[in-house]
Design goal:
CATH superfamily: NAD(P)-binding Rossmann-like Domain
Bound molecules: nicotinamide-adenine-dinucleotide
Oligomer: single chain
CATH architecture: 3-Layer(aba) Sandwich
Order of helices and strands: EHEHEHEHHEHHEHHHE
Strand order of the largest sheet: 3-2-1-4-5-6-7
Strand content: 5-15%
Number of strands: 7
Helix content: 40-55%
Length: 247
């Protein structure tokens, strides 16, 4: 799908009030796509962002506030869409801590947001995607999904599950010509990391990355556009975007 082919495509992007999802939404709006953007609770921020995309790019952009961890909310949100070509499962959370100290509620929140959330979004999106002639699915994963990370066992397990979901659904949907891929991000400079790590910890982390810098949300948005432009024969892949960090 060339960038020009994104014009008027109907795209759902979860977790688009800030960070990676917001940058992806901006890029797709610039390409002329019709957007539905979601977040969990920042209703005003999301509404302002959607209105600004509509103004600047003259595209429709519908803001929806719901919790992807709630299967019924996913069903309701998707049932409100008349058509859908592309799903970007981006909403996610992470918590730091030793496994034995991780509260049960945190474990459940992480799994419900980062793994079963995308599962339920896709469960209700696939029937719509099957009616599209150019359907695509991209899941935003993490390098920890395949490598694992100390202090982020639940997050790593959820993203590993998301990678497996990506590969499995790719096989299920390949006969219908729908590619399903994931982008496994390394460290991307967003609030998600700034909320967990001090400036000093971020500097130490940066030194581990061969590229010498964190990824930007723009790097992720450009990778999404590249994947959308790739042949549909490219499916079931977990593409690492990490500056050479976990190669
Ligand atoms: P962020 O915290 O800046 O933004 C997260 C977005 O997801 C927000 O819009 C938030 O409202 C939404 N969200 C969170 N929980 C939700 C829920 N239960 N229901 C609906 N929406 C919800 O995060 P980010 O850094 O932009 O990360 C986006 C994605 O990229 C996540 O899936 C994350 O795991 C993944 N990722 C990020 C990094 C990184 O370094 N930032 C690295 C690897 C993977």
């Amino acid at each position: 799908m060339k960038q020009s082919d994104l014009k008027s495509k109907s795209v759902l992007i979860t977790g688009a009030s800030r960070g990676i999802g917001r940058a992806v939404a901006e890029s797709l709006a610039a390409a002329g796509a019709r957007l539905t953007v979601t977040c969990r609770s920042s209703a005003e921020e999301l509404q302002r962002f959607a209105a600004s995309l509509e103004d600047r790019y003259e595209i429709p952009c519908v803001p929806l506030v719901f919790d992807v961890a709630d299967p019924e909310a996913c069903r309701t949100a998707l049932s409100g869409l008349s058509s859908l070509d592309i799903v970007i499962n981006n909403a996610g959370i992470s918590r730091f801590g030793l496994l034995q100290e991780l509260p049960e509620t945190d474990l459940n929140d992480i799994l419900a947001t980062d793994l079963t959330g995308p599962f339920h979004i896709l469960k209700y999106a696939v029937p719509l995607l099957l009616q599209s002639e150019a359907a695509r699915i991209i899941n935003i994963s993490s390098v920890w999904g395949s490598r694992g990370a100390a202090m982020e066992t639940a997050y790593s397990a959820a993203k590993g599950g998301l990678d497996a979901l990506t590969r499995s659904l790719a096989k299920e949907l390949a006969p219908s010509g729908i590619p399903v891929n994931a982008i496994a991000c390394g460290v991307i400079d967003t609030d998600m990391n700034r909320e967990h790590l001090s400036e000093e910890e971020l500097e130490i982390l940066k030194e581990e990355i061969p590229a010498g810098r964190f990824g930007t949300t723009q790097d992720v948005a450009e990778t999404v556009l590249a994947l959308l432009a790739a042949p549909s024969y490219l499916t079931g892949q977990i593409i690492a975007l990490d500056g050479g960090w976990q190669v």
